[in-house]
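Appendix B. Extra example for self-study. Work through it before the problem class; the solution is given directly after the inputs so you can check yourself.
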Amino acid sequence: DAGVIQSPRHEVTEMGQEVTLRCKPISGHNSLFWYRQTMMRGLELLIYFNNNVPIDDSGMPEDRFSAKMPNASFSTLKIQPSEPRDSAVYFCASSAYGTSGRASYEQYFGPGTRLTVT
Amino acid sequence: GQNIDQPTEMTATEGAIVQINCTYQTSGFNGLFWYQQHAGEAPTFLSYNVLDGLEEKGRFSSFLSRSKGYSYLLLKELQMKDSASYLCAVNDGGANNLFFGTGTRLTVIP
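Solution. Structure tokens for the complete assembly:
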């Protein structure tokens, strides 16, 4: 399996521009998680989906952030307009919810997108 | 809310043993994970505990006490490549998401 795929790996943009991050979960996984990681705040859960349905978006910082999962193999996280404080590494992770024991909760992380907003 | 506490940084010597502690206060409990994250890379799974006791996997072991809300990760025969952040994460049984601690950055010195 190719693992969780994220694109782009690096993104540099100017304040006010729209940014779209993409994620392809592991085939067969039905849960998808978006995280943001900074030195100051560590790994923060932004939103997660089960079977393409958003379950908890309480971690989304504000209305500038939105996430979609139109099908089981693709999700996007969009920031519009972007601000310098959005600079961070954004990780996507997936898991096989509904299986038994550890497998249901173990999350597999993608390589991340390093976002820099100037 | 959920609270996961870990030391911010630790330093240990190559060949030695180091113990990284994690305490948690969550509304419920349905398993604790340890992840390893090298600088600039993604977190990767290390260990899982859902029952009290010690789980051993090669040089790494993880311990859980549910009554104390406490876990530790034990790394033996430290190698330079073990320099990384170690993240403790808990599932509270309410849903399938994990609550992560801020991580412990371990530096292994010669």
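Self-check: The longest helix of chain A spans residues 102-105. If your reasoning did not lead you there, revisit section 3.
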